[in-house]
Design a protein that fits this description.
The complex is a heterotrimer of chains A (395), B (223) and C (275). Chain B has 223 residues and is of the alpha/beta class. Chain B is 35% helix and 28% strand. Chain B is globular, with a radius of gyration of 17 Å. Chain C has a 5-stranded mixed sheet with strand order 2-4-5-3-6. Chain C has a two-stranded antiparallel sheet with strand order 1-7. In chain C, a hairpin with a 7-residue loop joins strand 4 and strand 5. Classes of the chains: A alpha+beta (395), B alpha/beta (223), C alpha+beta (275).
Chain lengths: 395, 223, 275
Amino acid sequence: MIATLALSSLIRHRARTALAILGVAVSAAMLLDMVMLSSGMRESFRSLLLSQGFQLRLSPKGTLPFDTEATIRSADSLVALLRSRATVAAVSPVLGGQLHFAVGNATLTATALGVDPAVQGDYELIAGHSPTAPDEVVVNDAVLRALGRAVGDTVRAAAGYDPQLRTLSGQRVLRIVGRVRFIYLALDQRAAALPIATLRAMNGPASAGRASLAMVRLRPGVDVDRERAALEAQLRTVTVISTSEALKQVDERLSYFRQLAVILGAVSLVVGFLLVTTLVTVSVNERIGEISVMRAIGVRRWRVVAQILLESSVIMLVATPVGLALGLVTARWLNSILARFPGLPERIDFFLFQPSAAWTALGLLALSGVLAGVYPSWRGASLPIATTLRQEAVG
Amino acid sequence: MSAIVDARALVREYRMGEEIVHALRGVSLAVHEREYVAIVGPSGCGKSTLLNLLGVIDRPTTGELSIAGERVDRLSDARATDFRLRRIGFVFQRFYLMQALTARENVELPLAEAGMAGTERRDRALDLLDYVGLRKRERHRPSQLSGGEQQRVAIARALANRPALLLADEPTGELDAYTGAEMIALFERLNADGTTIVVVTHDEDLARAAKRVVHMRDGEILG
Amino acid sequence: MRSRLAFLVLLVVPLRAIAPQGNPRSIAIDERLAADAGLRVGDRVVVASEPGLPGDTVVVAGIVQRRADPAEIARGEYRVRLHLDHLQSLLGYGDRVDRFGVKTRGAGSTGDALSRINAAAFGFRAHRSADVAVETSRTFAVVSRFHRAIGVITIVASAIFLLCIMLLKVDERRRDVAALRLIGCSTRTIVGSVVLEAAAVAVLGSVAGIGVGGAASWIVNRHYQAVYRTPLRFSIVTGDIVLLAVALSLVLGVVSGWLAARRLAHTAPLTLFGR
């Protein structure tokens, strides 16, 4: 009976109901997007950082990995020291640099990563094999396209280019042995990976024994934070960053988006709340006579409130899935815009759908919508019956 | 016969801005079981106010009021609501049916509120519609019924929980003469079947049909 | 202007711990570093290109305010300015630089200067500052597109909200409309009066909205300026934005008012009265 009354009221004012549902759906979509933006970005980075199982990253003191051109001196002894620790399962040193591929008279520059192929965690092999011999290199599709080469081809590359003399230095003929996808680099960023010893040799004496970064995979059960603190205390020339520390840095860098997400999310919630409050207030005002009659014939106050709340709940229930769908569509759109950030790793999603976060957001909106109806409906059900009926009769 | 209504020195004052309106000035009234009382008087004499107090939708400023042996002048909102549901039947001048519900559903509304189960509720509603001659219109919505039919549905609704007292506020006020006469006959039949009725009316024919007429003026009962 | 960017280690050591040197070189630091490290003009510090190297003792000669550069938002690094030759010697870079800045004699001569420099260039290439700015501001172009997209969603949400409110507002006037019709007012008069009211509400709402928007913009700027320690303005309420908001709400208000009023004006007065 109560449900019939609630539904009939919604059906009676079709245009109003449709607009309210649409309004709440847009609010829900916006809220969902903002929740996805605030938590998704972080989660996406987290899964990216942990994708290869390295929990710690060591970079030159005071820097973040690959944030500056600074490198770690005596990296080989550092790696040996790390590998000797019982808590460490694997250490992957990485040296960043550039490779200048000779294409006719021109050169084509790509990011170069010197890695230890046996334990590397910077790329995923798509075709071919990892570079094991000193003259082997793996490249991504952007390089293959630009060079017009394929796996198995050889290419002349240099580690240095002197613009004054227009000469290449540290030249080698390298054989492309694999096609790879670089995990931490942008999709359109030309990149190649080769054994770290080869890159150091090509760079010359300045790079001897150096690495830009060392990634550490700990043995199962090892306390990451404790190990980080121990390494930080022991190694004076490096900064040791755990995944949670790195996430903190990422949070700081992307705090603008997170804060924007919080502000816009809160605005969406308020808009949804206001919309439902307005709707329920008007609905109650219109039916003040009906409500008073119900109260006069003995319908309890909470049942009257329940009937009105049912209306706002129905609006919320219908609007929420619509908002969910709308939110996912707009999130894809917004993500496609932000994915064009220069240098952003391919796998980073700004808008990551996480069911728990999504349900929390939509639940929050649904709850706020229902709560929005509580005050006007309670007020309506609490009006003096006799006075209201008299006014309605006069009106 | 025991008194269904026992009102003693009821005073009802309203504050209208700075001014205090004395709607009832010490009204005492007793209505006995199976009585049919009509309260008449000019507009603004306080008869609707008195009816609202008897219907427990308003509280007296001072005075004592018992309905069916229970003091109702100081009931909490929840208790008053429950009392209205089980002991009072209300018929309004403008019917006030729920437009979204059918005739049967309107009658079922107080039964559902009282917790009566589905089938029993439906049967009781149909019996009541049968009693007021609208069994065949059970599926019609108020907008599909004439004024007289709507008022009869409202009466069936008022009788749903077998109230100790049926109150009617100008029940013929919105009806034409012919339908009004039908309504008067229905009230007479209701009373003959044992329902205690108090009506407030300007309708002389309706007042004449009552067994007792109470005259009011300026918030007081005359005579 | 010649410049070189590099990573430097700055050791902040108490004055008395640093042995006095003959005539230390001077550096300028940004106010963020000065605040965080408690440095003042005249303090002596040690700068080195890598941790563990002895470096040079320098004196803080100036504290500079960071520019309102969006590229530096959310970046925690400090900025230290050294004399070019000092940085080159610290880094072992000889007399190399990353770039030169060339000031031309007005916009008209820039193209000519560019082609003449590039014709004679040996090992470098000249670019217009504007072209460099486009390249380096790609990030902000993305952020800007993102903001525009959010703006579109917000406008859609506001439009629906406004439409809904207007519909409700006009619906509340049922009895007034019924009374006007009963006393013989034409549909045109009734629709006109309702639309006028809707327009007035929309304009008043817009004016209030401009106030709220201005206040929100002020709060956003204060908040982000404090968070990122930058004089950059994050939110600016421009005339165009105000115009768009007012026009949008006016159009939506009038359209929704007209739609709702037409519906009421074509309903029988007694039905509007609920009889």
